[in-house]
Write a structure and sequence with these properties.
The protein has about 325 residues and is α+β, with helices and mostly antiparallel strands. The chain has 13 helices and eight strands. The protein has two domains: about 170 residues, no CATH class; about 130 residues, Protein Transport Mog1p, Chain A, CATH 3.40.1000.
């Protein structure tokens, strides 16, 4: 069974053709928005996984993870509401109020200040994060179910496509690209990677996907993971810190960009799975990520390094 899923349009309002921002948002906003996006992606992942296993439990699963994420989302949205572009501050304040109610529900259910802080500061670096978060509440099943039932009435959401107006979504797209949370939409995927390299990694049947960043998806492997190649170019280097912080098996790789690290699994903006490996490097004022789940051969450090050097040469 595959755990690799594509990011839906609802999860990312960024699109090709987004204009360059007049100014770069402050680091405080960019870091908070990066964590917020990671939380939103986790909610999507857990919901999609529940849909594949227990369709009738999707709503409750979504509400449960939003509830235990409430302390973190309240903190992040509080920061975003004071540092974001002015058109975005009101909707972020409204979201912060939703999750503040979630935090109060958790307190009434019996969570201590230390437990609330643990949830607010929890790293969201793996698909096991949901079990870690729920475990951190130390609530009985009865109390957790009661808290989830209360929070379901709040109507909280992290789906920006439903929360924001068209103009606000455009603003988020602009600022998300400037922060390096969304890949640079001005990059030409065809220029970065040759068709021969795509075939060599993802297979002869690989096709470019309509998504932010560059992603060529091949056929499914025997284990269910799709063969593929992903390349992202992010503005700034905050993305480097985020991706490395979320990954596992970090291994330095010499002579690729300014600071290269190989991670376990396939990690790109468009998709992720436990197949293959990913190389992330700083290239001046940009972060470049190359992920491969190869149709033939292995995703070795040397193979990733060679392809990444080619991408850097084509930037």
């Amino acid at each position: 069974m595959t755990l690799g899923i594509g990011v839906p349009a609802a999860a990312s309002p960024a699109a090709r053709g987004v204009p360059a921002p007049a100014t770069t948002p402050p680091d405080t906003f960019c870091r908070a928005f990066g964590e917020y996006y990671d939380a939103a992606f986790l909610v999507h992942f857990v919901t999609a996984f529940a849909q594949s296993l227990e369709p009738k439990s999707v709503a409750r699963t979504r509400t449960s993870i939003l509830l235990v994420l409430s302390p973190k989302l309240e903190k992040l949205l509080g920061q975003m509401a004071t540092t974001a572009s002015k058109p975005l501050r009101a909707p972020f304040r409204r979201q912060a109020a939703w999750f503040a109610r979630g935090t109060r529900i958790l307190r009434r259910a019996g969570l201590t200040d230390d437990q609330i802080k643990t949830l607010a500061d929890a790293a969201l670096h793996s698909t096991s994060a949901t079990d870690d978060l729920v475990g951190a509440t130390k609530l009985t099943k009865k109390k957790l179910n009661a808290a989830v039932a209360q929070f379901s009435k709040v109507g909280a959401s992290v789906d920006l496509a439903k929360i924001l107006t068209d103009a606000q979504r455009t603003r988020v797209a602009i600022d998300g690209v400037a922060c390096g949370v969304f890949p640079d939409p001005t990059v030409s995927c065809e220029r970065l990677v040759s068709s021969a390299d795509v075939v060599a990694v993802a297979g002869s049947d690989a096709a470019a996907q309509r998504t932010q960043g560059c992603w060529w998806k091949g056929s499914d492997s025997p284990t269910g993971y799709p063969y593929g190649l992903g390349v992202d170019v992010d503005r700034g280097t905050l993305a480097y810190d985020r991706i490395i912080g979320q990954g596992s098996g970090a291994t330095p790789v010499a002579a690729v960009g300014d600071a290269a690290t190989m991670l376990d699994g396939f990690t790109s903006f468009a998709d992720f799975s436990s197949c293959g490996h990913t190389l992330v490097t700083k290239a001046g004022d940009r972060t470049v990520t190359v992920a491969m789940c190869p149709a033939s051969g292995d995703a070795t450090a040397d193979r990733l390094a060679a392809l990444t050097r080619s991408v850097l040469a084509n930037l």
